[in-house]
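Per your request, structure below.
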């Protein structure tokens, strides 16, 4: 390691960094793929299993809740025993749950295995972020987290695209077999190419040894709590769209599964644009992530209000599609800033911090997003209303809890 390296990752070669980005990105994508790959199959599940749209949406909610709860277990566990063991065991559990989901014959069994799938997939997101924080700090941390934020924001949007293509060659059960194979590839990559980033001598730091101390250090940080709320509200708005979009665009607007997948491909450009510009502003132009949030959260409010008002005004499909793209782009702007602020000050309990952040994102989103289904998916109004309310809460959290002027500047 170079003598000038202040963090272990500073000594990695360019090739090693690229390898870590690819594998950690694959880990991060496991959760969103598990949650969203089967979205285009919702109408098929509804008819084949003889259940309501709300019952199908509950399997999505169950997956997200399992994903959120799993992160609360895996994160602190990885702070105590290291990163690789929890990662490999949890991902192995995910593979078994995928097999169970593929073999389910009714909505109840499918729902149970979906919860277990979410629980097992939780390790990927938490451990990937914790590993990055183990290796990097300051501006290099911004750059690496932006790559993971790109994956975590892009994967939920790309997953339905892939799912719609898979449905051309297999039924909905095949999607779960594909997820099982993906999990096997992840385990193999981690086993052969990822080293333990949390050595044994760094797992016990004064004031950070016990689970209670780690949670106290993280939850006692006002700024962390505030940005966790912003992240949870942003994900809730995004998943309100994801959970209802299959019914909205396929049943209301008459899209085929492949046209629905193409729509998601276009919207994915919004995530890419937001994440890349946010990262560039932080890394190259020294714009504080808190000030990026001050803009992106307002855009979330404006675009969700535009969808609501345009739909009520009879603007039709394009009245939803155009502002929706900018809403998704604003989500891309928000996610890297949330992760950087949340993890930058918690190197000693990175796994715990990452787990709380992820649990808030997916757990809260899992509870809020089905509200759209309760009010029906006959138009864009319920979706836009939930998106707007979550955006307003994010704005309030930024200015009343985080308080941007109190956020410490990033080290270089």
């Amino acid at each position: 390691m170079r003598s000038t390296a202040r963090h272990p990752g500073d000594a990695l070669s360019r090739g090693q960094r690229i390898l870590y980005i690819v594998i950690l990105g694959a880990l991060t994508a496991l959760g969103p793929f598990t949650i969203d790959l089967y979205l285009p199959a919702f109408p098929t599940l509804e008819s084949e299993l003889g259940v309501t749209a709300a019952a199908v949406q509950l399997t999505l909610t169950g997956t997200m809740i399992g994903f959120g709860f799993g992160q609360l277990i895996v994160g602190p566990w990885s702070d105590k025993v290291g990163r690789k063991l929890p990662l490999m065991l949890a991902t192995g559990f995910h593979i078994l749950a995928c097999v169970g989901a593929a073999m389910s014959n009714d909505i109840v069994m499918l729902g149970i295995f979906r919860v277990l799938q979410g629980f097992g997939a939780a390790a990927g997101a938490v451990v990937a972020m914790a590993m990055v924080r183990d290796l990097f700090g300051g501006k290099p941390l911004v750059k690496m987290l932006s790559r993971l934020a790109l994956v975590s924001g892009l994967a939920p949007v790309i997953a339905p695209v892939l799912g719609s293509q898979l449905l051309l060659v297999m039924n909905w059960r095949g999607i779960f077999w594909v997820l099982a194979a993906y999990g096997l590839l992840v385990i193999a990559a981690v086993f052969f190419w990822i080293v333990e980033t949390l050595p044994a001598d760094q797992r016990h730091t004064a004031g950070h040894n016990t689970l209670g101390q780690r949670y106290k250090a993280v939850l006692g940080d006002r700024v962390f709590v505030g940005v966790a709320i912003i992240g949870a509200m942003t994900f809730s708005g995004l998943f309100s769209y994801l959970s209802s979009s299959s019914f909205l665009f396929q049943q209301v607007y008459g899209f085929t599964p492949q046209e629905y997948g193409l729509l998601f491909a276009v919207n994915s450009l919004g995530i890419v644009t937001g994440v890349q510009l946010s990262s560039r502003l932080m890394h190259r132009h020294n714009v504080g992530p808190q000030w990026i949030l001050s803009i992106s959260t307002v855009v979330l409010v404006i675009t969700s209000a535009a969808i609501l008002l345009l739909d009520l005004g009879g603007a039709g499909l394009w009245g939803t599609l155009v502002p929706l793209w900018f809403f998704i782009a604003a989500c891309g702007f928000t996610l890297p800033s949330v992760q950087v602020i949340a993890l930058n000050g918690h190197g000693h309990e990175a796994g715990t911090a990452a787990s709380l952040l992820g649990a808030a994102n997916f757990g809260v989103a899992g509870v809020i997003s089905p509200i759209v289904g309760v009010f029906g998916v006959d138009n864009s109004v319920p979706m836009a209303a939930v998106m707007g309310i979550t955006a307003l809460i994010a704005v309030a959290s930024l200015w009343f809890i985080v308080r941007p002027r109190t956020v410490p500047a990033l080290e270089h």
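The chain has one domain: 15-406.

Regards,
D.
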